[in-house]
Specification:
The protein is an all-alpha fold and about 325 residues long. It folds into 2 domains: about 55 residues; about 240 residues, Orthogonal Bundle (MetI-like fold). It has a two-stranded antiparallel sheet. It is globular, with a radius of gyration of 29 Å.
Length: about 325
């Protein structure tokens, strides 16, 4: 409203208000643009390096492509999927992958046991925690090469010790019976992250509930199953999901630790390693089309298993 007694003052105030409003709008507009640019950068990165390659692999999975030139794609429909699902090597890789997935419960149980020990008032507990976690931050390839030297058939550390005490040497990487147990032990040695997560979960369990149960005469095993275990089930479920997905995609260890590229009796050929070999090693016979088809089979299997685990988690995971 204009000031009738002092119109000049009224016009000046109106001008200042309009100027301030315009400046505020410009500032807000600039902040919106800056915020949008910051938010859209990872989205663009996902489109370029995530969504586009994923869609391209889906297209390639329905084609025959035995080179890196996508212009040579030849549409073959579901032939790649049919060939894979009827291949003997596919089922061998499934068995090898399921065998390696045994590392998940073994690592979880061992992590729980060790983490429970680390919650006790032990000397050098911090040093032990550091030593146990250290393998997790090391390169998988570097750790595998180290264990390759330890497992080596003729001059490895273990076999040198066995021969020194008069026992026969063991073909950890050259015999079908010992290959996968050796790999499982290697993965167990690298389970430091699980120990840290489990120790944090144990520390967050309400100690007053455990003390009350002990006062009422409950045994330690009862305290564990009735109070401690329900309290750590969310962490156990997280570890189960993440470790199982990782186990189903394991390739690096298998590729590095083998002496002939596939292990004794093809024991090293997991699903992901089989995928890699089809796409990049056996390009002339299988090619990128076959590799892409297998990648989608593996992805669908992981999704289904994960969904089943989420359904089953309602029966045993306690979030209270």
């Amino acid at each position: 409203m204009r000031d009738k007694e002092n119109p000049e003052f009224s016009d000046t105030r109106l001008f200042k208000n309009n100027t301030a409003s315009s400046a505020a709008k410009k500032l807000k507009r600039r902040e919106d643009i800056e915020g949008t640019l910051m938010a859209i950068s990872p989205f663009i990165g996902y489109i370029l390096f995530g969504l586009f390659p994923m869609l391209l692999s889906l297209v390639v999975s329905f084609t025959e492509l035995k080179s890196y030139d996508i212009t040579r794609m030849k549409f073959v429909g579901f032939d790649n999927y049919k060939t894979i699902l009827t291949s003997e090597m596919f089922y061998t890789s499934v068995v090898n992958t399921l065998y390696y997935c045994l590392s998940v419960p073994v690592n979880m149980v061992s992590a729980l046991f060790i983490a429970n020990l680390l919650t006790k008032p032990l000397k050098a507990r911090g040093f032990a925690r550091t030593v146990l976690f250290l393998p997790s931050v090391c390169s998988t390839v570097g750790v595998t090469l180290m264990w390759t030297w330890i497992y080596e058939a003729n001059y490895g550390v273990i076999n040198t010790f066995l021969s020194g005490i008069g026992l026969p040497k063991v073909g950890f990487m050259t015999t079908k019976e010992w290959f996968m147990p050796s790999v499982l032990f290697l993965s167990l040695w690298m389970g430091g992250t699980n120990i840290v997560l489990m120790q944090a979960a144990l520390a967050n369990v309400d100690s007053s509930l455990k003390e009350a149960a002990r006062i009422d005469g409950a045994r330690e095993i009862t305290v564990f199953w009735k109070i401690t275990f329900p309290g750590i089930t969310p962490t156990l479920f997280y570890m189960l999901i993440m470790n199982l997905i990782g186990a189903m995609q394991e390739m690096a260890i298998m590729q590095v630790i083998t002496t002939n590229g596939v292990g004794p009796g093809y024991r090293a050929v997991t699903l992901t390693y089989y995928l890699y070999r089809m796409a990049f090693t056996n390009t002339a016979t299988d090619g990128l089309g076959m590799g892409s088809a297998l990648s989608w089979i593996v992805a669908i299997a992981i999704i289904i298993i994960t969904r089943i685990n989420f359904r089953l988690s309602k029966k045993w995971v306690n979030y209270d």
